[in-house]
Predict the structure of Membrane protein YkvI.
Amino acid sequence: MVTNGLKWLFLIIGTMIGAGYASGRELWEFFGSESGLAIILFAILFIVSCTVILKISYKSQSSHYIPVLQTLMGKQFTKVYDVMIVLYLFSTTVIMLAGGGATLEVIHLPYWFGIGIICGLLILLFVWDTKGMTSMNAFVIPILIICLLSVLFAFQYMKGFPFEMSLSEQSNWPAALTFTALNILPLIAVLSAIGKEIKHEGEIWIASIGSGVILGSISFLYNESLLQVAGEIILYEIPLFAILKHYPYFMVLLMSGLLWIAIYTTAAAGVFGLVSRFREYVNLPVWLLALLLLMTMVPLTTFGFSTLISILYPLYGILNLYVLASILLYPILRKGIFSK
């Protein structure tokens, strides 16, 4: 039970800690000053959301997200969100592929060669089906967490751990809702795909509470660290580098590698969600389906996605709030989900 629970925990964290989170950009955009309470609320909302999604997945023995969506919001709304999730996963994965190629240009690898590497590793990952995804997360996510926490703790040690949190100055608490909502679609897509593989409800509690506590702790420490360099973040595309500026150059290279891993795990989660959705319609090996999806994505990495993002992401944000509300209300409307 514990082993499987940890496996799902790392799957959740791997879905969450993408390039935006690991770089600090996502946290800085949503949180910043007066956000201690917001981060605590986010951790609570996240635990509840993961528990509800996993409980529904487990009870319906799902292998993709449609049964979970239908349970949460009915068949009519499910049709809308089915399209939205496919678009979200597809567009996010395309952006991750482009980011993977651009990141490796730092070590003077050609852009297309970098994209080829990340695509090749993604296809290889799905040769082992779901086990490949969970095994990869169980290996790389602890490394990512340990390295990120080490950098943040060392930075705070140099600063003397100047944490302050006055409950009278926590005006940014609504950010907890928007930040949780932003990440709810990929969580539904990925966690719905493992319903039939959960053997015991204890796994759900380990995965949900563990991931919420870990992500809440990292988010708080990361946000506090970013506040210490708030005046310099504007000079950096990647806020993490504002923290790393006093570190040796090899640390910058190490963290650049970790950001690439974060990009890879996000792309893997996107492909995993899409493959889980389409495999019932296409009788192909999972790795071949992943290959076909990636072949349609690679040409799109040549286009600028700023317009697409500026239209889709605000729309996702609004629609995701409705999904989040459905998830949070589900235990109240369907009494007993947490006890049975």
Observations:
- The chain has a mean pLDDT of 84.
- The two ends are 17 Å apart (CA to CA).
- The first helix runs from residue 2 to 16.
- The domain at 2-333 is CATH 1.10.4160.10 (Hydantoin permease).
